[in-house]
């Protein structure tokens, strides 16, 4: 998936979630997505490539970084709790190309990563402040 598509899909998804606000505290080139004032996603350009920072469970982040070339430790963030996601921009031909591990970021995985980031941030809020139940929102059934 190309980097512009990654940003567009993530933006469209995030803006549908309850209590999401879009802010630009770091300037017009850095879109920060917040739920009730807490950041769960940031979109920006990294070395000319549209990229996202997303909150992640540390164990999931470790596995994802090992499996997907498009996922790396969170740029300018806590590397344990954040990942950077950028689509591959090599034009990969007819879709038969893959990275060394044989995996590529797709729309379903991106959807899951944005949902997970949102729910992780919501789960840290006092129950009375949560706009959704993070355990069940978006079809989630497990911790």
UniProtKB/TrEMBL annotation:
Which GO molecular function entries does the Swiss-Prot or TrEMBL record give?
Answer: DNA binding
Instruction: Indicate yes or no for the key word DNA-binding.
Output: yes
Recorded hits in Pfam families, A to Z, give: YjbR
For this UniProt record, give its keywords in alphabetical order, as a comma-separated list. Answer: DNA-binding
Q: Does the keyword Nucleotide-binding apply?
A: no
What name appears for this protein in its UniProt entry? Answer: Predicted DNA-binding protein, MmcQ/YjbR family
């Amino acid at each position: 998936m190309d980097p512009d598509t990654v940003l567009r899909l993530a933006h469209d998804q995030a803006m549908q979630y309850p209590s999401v606000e879009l802010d630009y505290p770091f300037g017009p080139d850095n879109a920060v997505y917040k739920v009730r004032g807490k950041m769960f996603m940031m979109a920006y350009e990294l070395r000319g490539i549209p990229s996202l920072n997303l909150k992640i469970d540390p164990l999931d982040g470790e596995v994802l970084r090992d499996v997907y070339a498009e996922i790396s430790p969170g740029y300018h963030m806590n590397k344990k709790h954040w990942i950077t996601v950028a689509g591959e921009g090599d034009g990969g031909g007819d879709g038969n190309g893959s990275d060394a591990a044989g995996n590529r970021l797709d729309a379903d995985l991106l959807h899951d990563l944005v949902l997970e980031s949102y729910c992780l941030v919501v789960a840290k809020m006092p129950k009375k402040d949560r706009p959704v139940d993070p355990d069940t929102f978006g079809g989630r059934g497990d911790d």
